[in-house]
# Entry
Amino acid sequence: MPYTATAKTSRMTKTRDDLNGGDIQFIASGGQVIATVALNNPSGTISSDVINFSGFPKTVNPTQTGLAIAGVNWRTSAGTVYRTDTESGVVGLPASGARIIVSKLTPGVGDTITVQSVSLQHAA
# Structure
């Protein structure tokens, strides 16, 4: 049974509040952390069943190079992993339709990663 619009908004509000002041870790397929970007507090705004995270674009320096971004860990301000997303369409380049848009998927030595926009949508 699908969620009602009210239930989706309520759940996304709780998710946003749990992520306030947390961060997003960009991870490789083996779980290595490639880079981390901070989330604002408050972290974003709710529009129906979507969180649009605020304060982007942000530029970060990778801690690992030569590895492709395969997903993300969403973390609370306490550093606890709230959720891990590794499915297709989570992270991508501009015009990819991904929920998190970055400037590079496989950073090299000396590169930075610009996180251009971040959103999270409730499942049907």
